Amino acid sequence: MLRMSFLQHLEELRGRIIKALWGVAVAFVVSLTFSNELWNFVSQPAVQALKTLGYPQTLKQITPMESFNVIWFKLPVLCAIFLGSPWVLYQVWAFISPGLYRKERRWAVPFVLTSAGLFILGGVFAYFVAFRYGLTFLLSIGSGNHVEPMVSITEYFDLFVNVILGVGLVFELPVLIFFLTLLRLASPAFLVRHSRYAILVIFIIAAVVTPTPDVFNMMLFAVPMCLLFYVGIFAGYLLVLHRENRRFPWRKTLTIVLPLLLLLAVVGYIAVTKHVIKLVPHWPFVTR
Questions:
Q1: What are 107-162's pLDDT values in tens digits?
Q2: Does residue 159 contact residue 211 with C-beta atoms inside 8 Å?
Q3: CA distance readout (Å), 268 to 122, 255, 258, 262, 284
Q4: Residues 107, 108, 110, 116: what is their CA dihedral angle, to the nearest 10 degrees?
Q5: 37 CB burial (10 A radius; 0-12, 13-18, 19+)
Q6: Is residue 176 part of a domain?
Q7: The domain containing residue 45 runs over which residues?
Q8: How far lies 253's CA from each of 167, 246, 248, in Å?
C-alpha cells in the first residue's frame, strides 16, 4: 500500500468505507428489532426529569410521522453507530496500518477495543450523568413562572443525540493523543508543556457541548475531559518508552498507588457501615 498511487489509495479508502457502512447496516437491522425497548431506555431520562419536577411523565407527538421517524429510524441508526463502532474503527485501522512500522501494527486490537470502549463509555457517562442533570435543569427553568413544558419526541431525541454523540467523541481524546504520538506529530513532553492551553480549550469545548449554562454541568464535562487528556499523555509516554526500549517503573508506581486505593476503599467502607454516607443507584451514587 505504501507504493500505491493516489487513485489506488482512494480506491482502498472507498472499499474500507463501504465495508464500514455494511457493518453499520447490519447493526441497524439488529437494532430495528428492539426499537420499542430502545425507546423505553432512551426516554427514561425524560420520564425521570418530568417526575422529579412534578409534570406529566409523557413526551408529545406533534406530527403524524414523528413517532415513526424517531422510534423506528433515527433511534436504530444511533444504536447502530454504537454497536458498529468496533467494526468501523477496525476499518480505520486497516486503512492506516500499512503506513506504520511492523511493531506498531500490533496495536490493532488494543486500538479497536480502546477506541470503541471509550466511545461507549462516553455515551454511558452522558446518559447516566451529564444528560440527566442537564435535562432536569432545562425543564426546571420555567417551573416557578407558571410554565409547563411540552417536550416533543423529536426535540428531545435531537438533544439526546447531540449530547450522547458529543460526549462519546470527546472520550476519544486519549486515542487522538496516542495517534499524534504514534505518527510523531506530537510528544508527551510537548503536550505537558502546553497543557494549560489544552485545558483552556477543553473548558471552551465543555461550555459549548454542555446543554445548560450553569458551571456545575460544565464541570461534569470538563473534569472527565481533563482526566482523559492526561490519560492520553500517559499512553503516549508508554509508547515513547517502548520505542526507546525502556520500561515504565510499574512496580514503584503500584507500590504507591495501591496503598492509596486501599486506604480510600477502607475509608469508604467505614463511611458506609457507620451510616455517614449511603450508596444510591444514581449520580453521584453517594448521599448523606
A1: 667 777 788 788 888 888 888 887 887 788 788 877 777 788 888 899 899 888 88
A2: yes
A3: 26, 21, 15, 10, 14
A4: 140
A5: exposed
A6: no
A7: 1-171
A8: 30, 15, 9
